[in-house]
Write the structure tokens for this entry.
Amino acid sequence: MQTIQDVMTSDVQSITSQETVQRAAQMMDNLNVGAIPVLDDGKLVGMVTDRDITVRSTAAGLAPDQSHVRDVMSTDVRTCSPDQTVDEVLDQMGDAQIRRVPVIDPQSRQVIGIVSLGDMAAKHSAGIDHTLENISTPAEPDRSTLGNADTRH
């Protein structure tokens, strides 16, 4: 049975929560990734994604060179260990509707990798269809912040 260690990406770049949103976006562009683990003092404190930058920063009108990663990052981060099975983590990803999971060393508690749906699709195709279906299930839109526009036709 394949484990996460067999499919994960081990060369992971990180950012601190004090960095600017602009720096996070630049890193994503340079690395060609959509998410970066956020580490403070070597400890995982969150993940910042391209969606976080778009939805939480740009949509709120925050200046990317003046706002910080801590202002837009996700703090409820699901993690896995390198010895977990791919199928187990695929199930967790589907349940949580997430596409990437940091891999944490059980002894040191340090981030040692990241595993994405793409990693699993490229190296372990079984179970991807079910997981992708769960991740892609649409959620109800939150229309409470769209203003008081008249919706009568």
Q: What stands out?
A: The CA atoms of residues 80 and 130 lie 19 Å apart. DSSP finds seven helices and four strands in the chain.
